[in-house]
Amino acid sequence: MSQPLTIALDAMGGDRAPEAVIEGACIARVRHAGLRFLLVGDEARIGALLARCPELAAVATVRHTVEVIGPEDRPSVALRRGKRSSMRIALEAVRDGEALGVVSAGNTGALMALAKAVLKTLPGIHRPALASIVPTRRGETVFLDLGANLDCTAENLFQFAVMGEVFARTVLGVIKPTVGLLNVGVETTKGNKTVQAAATMLQDDRLPLEFHGFVEGDAITAGKVDVVVTDGFTGNVALKTAEGTMRLYSEFLREAIKHSLISRLGYLLARPALSALRDRLDPRRYDGAVFLGLNGIAVKSHGATDALGFATAIGFAVDMSKEGFNDKVVAELSQWHADQASESEAAAL
Amino acid sequence: MSQPLTIALDAMGGDRAPEAVIEGACIARVRHAGLRFLLVGDEARIGALLARCPELAAVATVRHTVEVIGPEDRPSVALRRGKRSSMRIALEAVRDGEALGVVSAGNTGALMALAKAVLKTLPGIHRPALASIVPTRRGETVFLDLGANLDCTAENLFQFAVMGEVFARTVLGVIKPTVGLLNVGVETTKGNKTVQAAATMLQDDRLPLEFHGFVEGDAITAGKVDVVVTDGFTGNVALKTAEGTMRLYSEFLREAIKHSLISRLGYLLARPALSALRDRLDPRRYDGAVFLGLNGIAVKSHGATDALGFATAIGFAVDMSKEGFNDKVVAELSQWHADQASESEAAAL
Questions:
Q1: Do A237 and B242 touch (CB under 8 A)?
Q2: HSE-up (13 A, CA, CB side) for residue B87
Q3: Where are the domains of chain A?
Q4: What is the pLDDT of residue A349?
C-alpha cells in the first residue's frame, strides 16, 4: 500500500483514557510501519502525553473535543446528545474517508449505536455483529455475536457466519476456516427453529464456506471449529461464563496451593510456569472485539484495557483495513445472491 | 418419616450401567438410613451385582426387563417404542406410588420426554425445567434451565425462578435464597422482551422470593446469587462452555508445568494441593441434574457417571422427596395466584 493507513482513535474512551490510548498507539506505531493516527479528544491532555512519545506525535493529528460518552450512558442518550463526543467524531472521520478504521475502549452499547448510525451497515448485511477472538486448545477461534443483536433470525446467523469466516481467513490467516453453529447438541435434529433454518442456509453447496454443522458450548474452547456463530444473547452469556469460570479456577488453584507449606514451596518452583500460563490466557492478548458488517472498520477495546491491550485492538483495525475485509464480505454475499438468482431464473425457464 | 422411602433406579441407563448404578445404590444405602430401592433392568446382571452387596439386596426389589433406551435414541423413538424400557418402568413406579422418585443415568432427552408423558407436570407449572448445582466461589448455585425448554416465555422463566428458589431452600438449606435472571447486563433496561417481562413478574412484592435482578454470565461462578434462571438454550450453552473452559485451563496448566524440570519438581510438591483442587471441582460432587416441575421426583445422573456420582444423584432424589419439594412449589404458586385473584377482585369492586 503506497497511501498511508490512518486509524482514528477515541482518545477519551475507557477507564484508563487517554493514557492507555496514547501509549497503546505508541506501541502500535512500532508494530505497523507507516501507520498514521487521528487522535480525537482533549487536546491539552493528549498533547502532554504526545510530548513523551515524539515518534507518535510525528505521525498523529489531534482533533480537539471535550465531550466524552460515559461508561453508564445509555445508547439512546449517546445518539441524541453525543454529537461532539470523541467517539462520534472518530467514527465520522471513518465515514468521511479521513481514516480507514476507528478504535475505542469506550461504552460498547454507545459505540454500537453510534457506529450503526454514522457508518451504516454493509450492503447485504441486515445487522452488524460483535466478534471476538478466544483462546482454545488448538489456537484461536472467532466467536460471534457477543451481544450486538439479542434476538436473531436465521438470516442474521447466516450473515454472521459469512462475516466470521472471512475474518478468520483474512485477518487470522486460516486457509479454509470451518464454521460451527452453536446449539444444544450436535445432532442435525437438535435446536429451535432459528438454528435449524440457519443450518439449512449454511449447508448450501454454492456457499464458499466450510460448514461443520452444530457445535456445543464446550467446542468453543476445544477449538473444534475456527468460527463459532450464535445470537448475541447466548454469545454474551457464554463469553462471560467462560471469563467467570477462568476466575473461579485460578482462585481455587491459589487457595489450594496456599494450603500447606510444602505446596507453597512447590508453587515457588512452578511459578515461572504458572506465570507463563497467565500470559497465555492474558486477556490483553485477546483484547478487542470487532464490529463486523459496518461500512467502515470499528474495533472495541476492553474498557479496562491498558496500553498493550489497546495496541492489540489497533492491530485488528489495521489488519482488517489492509486485508480489505469489508470488500471481501460484500463480494462473497453478492456472488452468492447472484448465483441464487441465476439458478432461480434457470429453474423458471 | 415412619414409612420407608423407596427410590426407583433405571439400572440399565448410562455408560457404566448396571455396575455404577448398583454400586451407587450400595453407597447411598449407607448414607440414607431406611432407604429402599426398586431396581429396574436385567435381572441376571443385577442379581450378580447384588450378590456382592447383600446389605443392598436386603432393601431392594428387582423388576425385570431387557429393553433399554440407548444414548442415541431420539425422544420421539423412546416415547413410541420404549414401553418396556427400564427407564419407563422406573418412571411408572413413581406414577403408581410405588416409589417417590426415580434416578437414571440414561439418555437425557428420552428421560425428559418419558418423564413428562408418564408423570405429567405439577399443577401451575407449564413446563418442567432441568436444574443443576454448580460450584461457585462462595459455595453452590442452582442453575436452570439446562436444556429442557429451548424457547421460553416470561411465564416459564418466572416458574423456573419459583422452583429454583424452593429447591435452594429445601434441598440445599439456604435460608433466604436470592434469585438472579441471566441477561447481557445488570441494568434494568438491558435484555430482550422475554427477560424484561419475566423481571417485571419477579419484582412482584407478594412473591415470597428474593429477586436480585439481572445477572451476567460471570455471576454464576462468582456465586452472586443462589439461583440463576435462564432459558434452556442459553443455559445449556453456558454450562457446556463452563465445562470446556475448565478443561482448557487444566490442560494449559499441565502443559505449563511440564515445561521445565524445576516446575515439574514444584508440581510434585504441590500435587496434594492440586489433587484437592481436582476433588473440589470433581463433577461427581455435582452429579445429577434434577427435573423440576414434574408430578414426581426425577433425577438425571451424568451418562458417564461412576458409583460415587450416581450415589450423589440418589441423594438429590431422597432430599427432594423428604423435604416435600413438589408440595412446596405447588403451595407457593397457588398462594401467589390466590393473592393475585383476590387483589383483582378488590380492584374490581
A1: no
A2: 31
A3: 1-125+293-349, 126-284
A4: 65
Question: Is A188 within 8 Å of chain B by CB?
Answer: no
Q: Which of B308, B302, B304 is nearest to B285 (CA)?
A: B308
- Architecture of the domain defined by B1-125+293-325: 3-Layer(aba) Sandwich (3.40)
B chain contacts of residue A230, beta-carbon cutoff 8 Å: 237
CATH 3.40.718.10 applies to domain A1-125+293-349:
yes
Give tens-digit pLDDT for B51-102. 999 999 999 999 999 999 998 888 888 998 878 999 999 999 999 999 999 9
Cell triple for A37: 493516527
B76 in contact with A, Cβ within 8 Å: no
Whether A178 and A171 have beta carbons less than 8 Å apart is answered as no
CA B97 from centroid of its chain's CA atoms: 21
Indicate the pairing of strand A289-292 with strand A129-136: antiparallel
Helical segments of chain A, H only? 19-31, 43-50, 54-57, 75-81, 86-95, 108-119, 154-170, 193-202, 218-222, 232-258, 261-280, 307-322, 325-348
- Short-list A278, A287, A314, CA closest to A102: A314
Q: What is the ipTM, given to two decimal places?
A: 0.88
B1-125+293-325 and B126-285: identical CATH topology = yes
pLDDT band of residue A330 (cuts 50, 70, 90) is very high
Gyration radius of chain B's alpha carbons: 21
**Fold (topology level) of A126-284:** Isopropylmalate Dehydrogenase (3.40.718)
Q: Which CATH superfamily is domain B126-285 in?
A: Isopropylmalate Dehydrogenase (3.40.718.10)
**Chain segment A123-136, per-residue pLDDT in tens:** 989 999 999 999 89
Q: Which of B106, B103, B149, B142 is nearest to B126 (CA)?
A: B149
Q: In B, which residues are within 8 Å of A218 by CB distance?
A: 240-241, 243-244, 247
pLDDT less than 50: residues of chain B: 1-2
Distance (Å, whole) CA A251 – CA A247: 6
CA atoms within 13 A on the CB side of B126: 11
Per residue in A227-263, pLDDT tens? Answer: 999 999 999 999 999 989 988 888 888 887 777 787 7
Q: What's the predicted TM-score (pTM) here?
A: 0.90
Are B240 and A218 an interchain contact pair (Cβ–Cβ within 8 Å)? yes
